[in-house]
Amino acid sequence: MSSFPYTLSDTGGPALGLIVLQTDETIEGDILRLFRGTPVRIYVSRVRAGAAVTPAMIAQMALDLPEAASMLPQATRYGAVGYGCTSGTTLIGVDRVAELVQSGCKTDAVCDPLSAARAVCAHLCIRRLGLVSPYRADVAQPVSDAFETDGLHVTRAVHFGEEVEANVARITPDSVIAAAREVARHGDIDGIFLSCTNLRTLDVIRPLEQELRVPVFGSNLALAWAMARAAGLPDIPIGSLGPVDSADNRSAGAALPAA
């Protein structure tokens, strides 16, 4: 066998990193779907997570985040790295999540679903938020509390009381729709957040917006939107009705990518 010369080149296209919970069966497909048709390269790592979502499990996950981030390809600098856990971000802390992720990979921007959702609320001028969570109260309530800032209030929240992640991934879209309707029926709201990266939300967002006439967004859509912005990429459509205080913007808007 003889040696043969070769050349090197950049792998091409901006790179994004995504850290996914071991038990999450939804976010990876959603993120790939939302960035479909773009030149983005998406690299995924998994972080250890228990089968049941509890504050203790999330505390342990924080210890494992640097290792999970370090499992992303080290030769690449990422335009943004997303950490895919809304409740985890809430209990660990936004700044701490960023610190832990950046200790393991090269990126200037760490995005998370909680910060992303709050940014979406500001972008769409949402002040009275309705919230749907799949989890039990001691995990769901801190997420709701985290939105009570900067003039934003959660005026109505419901939760399914689920603890097992495998079940969260299997909550039916019809159940999510029914919960969102309940929030809209009994809350004075101008937007709805469907919390949790493992909850199947992408295909119910547009129908709910058309029915309820308020912006609706989930953790994965918000995270993808924030990652695109942080990396200087074209915006991902969010809030097809436009800002809630601008009737002129309440048009059909851009649709989400089909499954």
TrEMBL record:
InterPro entries: Iso_Racemase_Enz_sf, MaiA/AMDase
Listed Gene3D superfamilies: 3.40.50.12500
Keyword Transferase: no
Keywords: Isomerase
GO molecular function list: maleate isomerase activity
Pfam families: Amdase (PF17645)
Keyword Isomerase annotated: yes
Upper lineage: Bacteria, Pseudomonadati, Pseudomonadota, Alphaproteobacteria, Rhodobacterales
Enzyme Commission number(s) from the entry: 5.2.1.1
Protein name: Maleate isomerase
